[in-house]
Amino acid sequence: MQTKRTVFGNCVLPYLLLLPQLAVTMVFFIWPAGQAVWQSFLQQDPFGLRTSFVWFRNYERLFHDPNYLNALGVTVVFSISVAVLSLGLGLILAVAVDRLVKTRLYSALIVWPYAVAPAVGGVLWWFMANPTIGVVPYLLRLVGYDWNHALSPTDAMIFVVVASSWKQISYNFLFFVAGLQAIPGSLREAAAIDGAGPVKRFFTITVPLLSPTSFFLLVVNTVYALFDTFPVIDATTKGNPQQSTTTLVYKVYQDGFIALDLGSSAAQSVILMLIVVLLTVVQFRWVERRVQY
Amino acid sequence: MAAITLSDVRKVYAGGVEAVKGVSIDIADGEFLVLVGPSGCGKSTLLRMVAGLETISSGTISIGERVVNRLEPAERDIAMVFQNYALYPHMTVRQNLEYGLKNRGMAKDERGRRIDEAARALEIAQLLDRRPRQLSGGQRQRVAMGRAIVREPAAFLFDEPLSNLDAKLRVQMRAEIRRLQSALRTTSLYVTHDQLEAMTLADRIVVLNAGRVEQIGTPMELYERPASLFVAGFIGSPAMNLVPLAGGSAQAFDNLPAALAEEGRVLGVRPEHLELTDRLAGEGEVGLAMVVTSVESVGAESFLHGALGESGPAIAVRIPGYSRVEPGVRLRAVAPRALLHVFDQTSGRRAA
Question: Of A103, B54, B143, B252, which residue is the least packed, with the fewest Cβ within 10 Å?
Answer without folding.
Answer: A103
